[in-house]
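testing teh design pipeline on a random one, pls ignore if ur not involved
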């Protein structure tokens, strides 16, 4: 069953060997994706095989990505796999969140349970394994966020040198701290994101560096398995909707591709509708979907949101994302900073918790149900992308009423839960707890 890289542009569709080091189509500049022949097993055989692996102690079977390896067959030697037992994330029902979102029921697929705390691990296990297959000695990305935290961990686990490039003056300390701990060489360059990416591409060939940025097609392959695992956990009953936040739009591209392929393989009988939610200050894809001309995305020069994981003005994967939204009859919504902050606190009250970008899902659901786009009795899975502890400063500021939005506006702590200071007096403490 040969795996190949293919250009996604309809007018091109050029194909390349899976082991060529390519980031864009050399013929037309389009995005690339992995394509495969049919697996040897039937849909029922795959379901049985994947379910049986859950009781296995073999590292590949314990990974919630590589358990589905027939679905991502781009490695010809599985001894190249680097796994930290990513995936295996739970489906968690949130009663209060459902009510807040205007739904009878709501289930969260919580990718924050991953080894480095975000869904980037599902993709990075594949990106790092491909780097090993290609014989790279170093891997690099331009990021200070969850991508760098994840890449650093997987590269070090694989014995590769992780290198992180940071645009000067743009540091997210919480996530960068993980990258430092996992041994990434971290280089701050006095240039913007695009300039640094061009620089890194020049250096890549010369220094044996393989790039693991968002357009890397193997990361997308790994993220596809989030949908396979979700459906496996639901005994292959497709939900009506899958809701997720959108930044660079790699994840929506992965979910759409994964769901289409699962349907083509006969594992599900219909496609869920995809709903992407963006922050209002960083919503170029929302604008594109509501524009008359959808052939070109207008980048936002200064994206603004406290949800840093989706603070992206020029999302690289938008052509793939557009294709997946059309294929799934999907929608794009946008939500304000206040809506994200309140939705996040409601998810917290369910005992679940997530990082700000993830909470855009619930804020978006609330808007989509009240607009009548999503029915109250819909079967909805919302994907929480990152762990609650990724951004503790935001949480403390929200609950104590000092959180300021990106343009200095005060965020109201609608569900604020500030700590109180009481004297060392059992009577006073008892009174407080009784009130
Ligand atoms: C990367 C990330 C996103 C955005 O995903 P894209 O694939 O860039 O659209 C959302 N939430 C979290 C927590 C992330 O790390």
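output:
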């Amino acid at each position: 069953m040969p795996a190949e890289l293919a250009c996604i542009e309809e007018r091109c569709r050029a194909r390349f060997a899976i082991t060529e080091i390519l980031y864009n189509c050399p013929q037309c500049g389009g995005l690339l994706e992995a394509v495969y022949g049919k697996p040897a097993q039937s849909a029922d055989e795959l379901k049985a095989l994947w379910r049986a692996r859950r009781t296995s102690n073999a590292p590949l079977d314990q990974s919630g990505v590589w358990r589905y390896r027939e679905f991502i067959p781009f490695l010809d030697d599985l001894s190249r796999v680097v796994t930290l037992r990513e995936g295996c994330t739970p489906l968690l029902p949130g009663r209060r969140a459902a009510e807040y979102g205007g739904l009878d029921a709501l289930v969260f697929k919580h990718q924050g349970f991953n080894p480095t705390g975000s869904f980037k691990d599902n993709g990075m296990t594949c990106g790092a394994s491909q780097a090993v297959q290609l014989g790279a000695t170093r891997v690099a990305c331009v990021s200070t966020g969850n991508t760098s935290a994840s890449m650093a961990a997987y590269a070090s686990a694989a014995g590769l040198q992780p290198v992180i490039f940071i645009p000067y003056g743009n540091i997210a300390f919480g996530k960068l701290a993980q990258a430092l701990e996992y041994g990434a060489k971290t280089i701050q360059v006095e240039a913007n994101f695009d300039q640094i990416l061009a620089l890194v591409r020049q250096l890549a060939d010369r220094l044996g560096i393989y790039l693991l940025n968002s357009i890397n097609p193997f990361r997308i392959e790994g993220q596809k398995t989030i949908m396979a695992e979700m459906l496996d956990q639901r005994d292959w009953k497709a939900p009506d909707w899958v809701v997720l936040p959108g930044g660079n739009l790699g994840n929506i591209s992965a979910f759409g591709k994964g769901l289409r392929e699962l349907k083509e393989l006969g594992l599900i009988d219909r496609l869920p509708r995809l709903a992407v939610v963006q922050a209002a200050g960083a919503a170029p894809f929302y604008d594109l979907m509501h524009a008359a001309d959808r052939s070109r995305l207008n980048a936002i020069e200064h994206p603004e949101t406290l949800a840093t994981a989706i603070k992206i003005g020029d999302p690289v994967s938008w052509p793939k994302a557009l294709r997946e939204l059309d294929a799934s009859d999907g929608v794009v919504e946008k939500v304000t900073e206040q809506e994200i902050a309140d939705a996040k606190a409601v998810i917290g009250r369910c005992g679940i918790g997530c990082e700000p970008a993830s909470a855009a899902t619930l804020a978006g659901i609330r808007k989509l149900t009240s607009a009548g786009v999503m029915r109250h009795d819909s079967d909805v899975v919302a994907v929480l992308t990152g762990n609650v502890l990724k951004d503790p400063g935001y949480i403390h500021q929200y609950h104590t009423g000092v959180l300021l939005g990106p343009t200095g506006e005060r965020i109201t702590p609608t569900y604020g839960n500030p700590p109180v200071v009481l004297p060392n007096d059992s009577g006073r403490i008892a009174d407080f707890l009784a009130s």
